[in-house]
Amino acid sequence: MINERAYMVRSHASEGEVADLRNEIAELKATLAAASENHRDAWAALAMIREAIETLGPVGALPSSEAVSTNPQQGHFLDEAAAIVAAIQKMGAENERLRTALERIERWFGEFPDTGERWQDGSPMSYSAAYGSNGERDFMRGVARAALAGEPR
Prior knowledge:
about 0% strand, 5 helices
């Protein structure tokens, strides 16, 4: 704490200047208290988001908090936030990949590759004609299997 009388004597500051400094110190303390509270609230929010991802997301979507930040008090807040954002983006990309596969399976018609087979008149033979309904089913199972495994098809 500032010894106001000693300050006034040494710096020749007036009582009004000391009062202004006292007010400024009070404002800085209030700002620091608010910033500390905001920091605690932000960590609490990240912890809730982490818990939701760990509970509802796929296994391994988010690295452990120990792997991301060893001590929250040492400024690893942005590392934790970045890990959470990356996990959400990864899950979003996975959802998009699975959605694309489901849409392809749902359309069914027109989703089969060219068989390379030809009818006697030279026109292309459909997948169904070449491999039957079981062949179509097996092809679409392969589409689903590849989507679940994260492989392009």
